[in-house]
Amino acid sequence: MFKNIEDYPEVLTATDLSEILRVSKPTAYELMEHKTFPLIKIGQRGKRVLKTEFFRWLSQQQAG
C-alpha cells in the first residue's frame, strides 16, 4: 500500500526515499550521495533530507 506524500515526515530517511521512488534502500543511499542532493548529515552515518528540499531537487532533476 502506498502512502500519500503528506503522510511522510518533514525529514526523510533513505527508507522513506526508497518507498517514495519505489527503489531499493541501497539505491536510495546511492542517490543521497549525488553531489547536488540536499543531504543533511547527522553524525558520521546519519543521512536525512528535508521533504521540501527533496521534492525541489527531484523536480530539478526532471527538468534537467
What does this structure look like?
The chain has 64 residues and is of the alpha+beta class. It has one domain: Arc Repressor Mutant, subunit A, CATH 1.10.10. 45% of the residues lie in helices and 16% in strands. The protein contains three helices and three strands; from the N terminus they run βααββα. Strands 1-3-2 form a three-stranded antiparallel β-sheet. A hairpin with a 3-residue loop joins strand 2 and strand 3. The longest helix is centred in the last third of the chain and has 13 residues. The relative contact order is 0.18.
Write a short abstract of this structure:
The protein has 64 residues and is of the alpha+beta class. The chain has helices at residues 14-21, 25-32, 51-63; strands at 11-12, 40-42, 46-50. The chain is globular, with a radius of gyration of 11 Å.
Q: Tell me the series of helices and strands, N- to C-terminal.
A: EHHEEH
- How does the helix and strand content classify structurally? alpha+beta
Total helices: the number is 3
Quaternary status: single chain
The whole-angstrom Rg is 11 Å
Shape: globular
Spatial order of strands in the largest sheet: 1-3-2
CATH topology, anyone?
Answer: Arc Repressor Mutant, subunit A
Helix percent reads 40-55%
CATH secondary-structure class: Mainly Alpha
Low-confidence stretches: none
What about the largest sheet?
3 strands, antiparallel
Distance between the termini: 31 Å
Can you tell me the CATH architecture? Orthogonal Bundle
